[in-house]
């Protein structure tokens, strides 16, 4: 059954639910290279070959797809379109399955959760999404999901603000190395292999922990201090860092450099470690001659 589209005051259809996106690597163990420095992905509408509908419904889906926010590369999302109560205790949810990868994907059996605006769980079900067919690269496919009374935990269904989300299993993958594109392109293969081996041989961070490990510190001839750190994400979610206040101590436990660094959408994926070099210009270096036979660098806690 195709959805009934609620209308805005201007007569256009409206989205009733919200967006819920996950990493394609976490969900499918699939990634693809972004186009150049692509930061946003807009998805084209794609219908299942066996779906038939009126021109009016096609227009409604097209309009709502254009209303969806842009995705980031390597994401799979569910974007809530409509919710209908078929009969007491059951409902049909229509949502876009959205694929921001540069390649076709096929989903399989997965667990979905139905959430309200405050992320309270209203329902849960396991569904085989292979029936949705192949989802083309950078596309949105509308699909219907039916929850019965055993899969719903409430009879009080929200009209708006809800969302359908993938329930990811706790990661069983080994903690692994993640390299920024600039590092992938500039680092020699032997150096990549050494980093990968080191990360895999280290004890991983505790679940949910994010920490910093020093790799290399070097003072240049102009006095600037270059510090390379391994940012280690032990959680099952990707994290994005925007501001990092760092302090460096030398072998005598004396502060030799301190400063804040602004990062542009710096993402460390779930259960990975990502190296990055922070450059302290001479004005942030507090000693002229630094003993770096041993050292440590760490983020300053906000007061």
From TrEMBL:
It comes from the Bacteria. Residues 1-11 have a biased composition (Basic residues). InterPro entries: Sec_acc_SLAP, SLAP_dom. Residues 1-40 are annotated as: Disordered. It comes from Alteribacillus persepolensis. The lineage of its organism: Bacteria, Bacillati, Bacillota, Bacilli, Bacillales. This is Accessory Sec system S-layer assembly protein.
